[in-house]
Design goal:
Length: 188
């Protein structure tokens, strides 16, 4: 039986930051479930970098079904969690069910992969204090306010926490996360 990994996300998540780890983890042999505030079809976005813009642009992305609602998640069934970025973390960090889920992963020292704006959620459960992380560069001050040491790097590994800046860093992020995941919880 394959070990299960949870992806926690919602509307306005960055398409690539949900679907790349989803497919990569399936390829690796893990069973992957997507959880959101409610079980519904989620609407993702595409963030891109265009000349002349001071920040990223946003366009409609893919739709994807959530397998279950946060309230239905039993964290004990999962060996790891992935927290994609996009705009979703801005409102997801306020969800008490999601905060309980993430706290349980950190309390059990299970692997956590976060990218882009995803660390806004782990900051909301006070799980960044004393850690080294990276995130979307505009979040450097947020990471410092959460008690973390920010590093501008493709991926930062701090114990079982693996963070990354944004989708252009996917190969390094997933390579580092899979090292941690395979060591803690092989696929089968």
């Amino acid at each position: 039986m394959a070990a299960k990994v949870l992806i926690v996300t919602g509307d306005a998540a960055e398409s690539l930051e949900v679907l790349y780890p989803y497919q990569r983890l399936l390829e690796e042999g893990y069973e992957v479930h997507v959880a959101a505030p409610t079980r519904k079809t989620l609407r993702f976005v595409v963030h891109d970098f265009e000349p002349g813009f001071d920040t990223y642009t946003e366009k409609p992305g893919y739709t994807w079904p959530a397998d279950l609602a946060f309230a239905d998640v039993d964290p004990g069934e999962y060996v790891a969690v992935v927290i994609p970025g996009g705009r979703a973390p801005e409102y997801l960090r306020n969800d008490p069910e999601l905060r309980k889920i993430l706290k349980s992963f950190f309390d059990a020292d299970k692997p956590v992969a976060q990218i882009c704006h995803g660390p806004l959620i782990t900051a909301a459960v006070d799980s960044l204090r004393g850690r080294r992380v990276t995130a979307y560069p505009a979040l450097e001050l947020d990471m410092q306010a959460a008690g973390a040491t920010y590093q501008d790097s493709e991926a930062v590994v701090d114990g079982t926490l693996v963070s990354s800046r944004a989708w252009p860093d996917h190969p390094t992020w997933m390579r580092e996360f899979l090292k941690v995941l395979r060591a803690k919880a092989p696929a089968s």
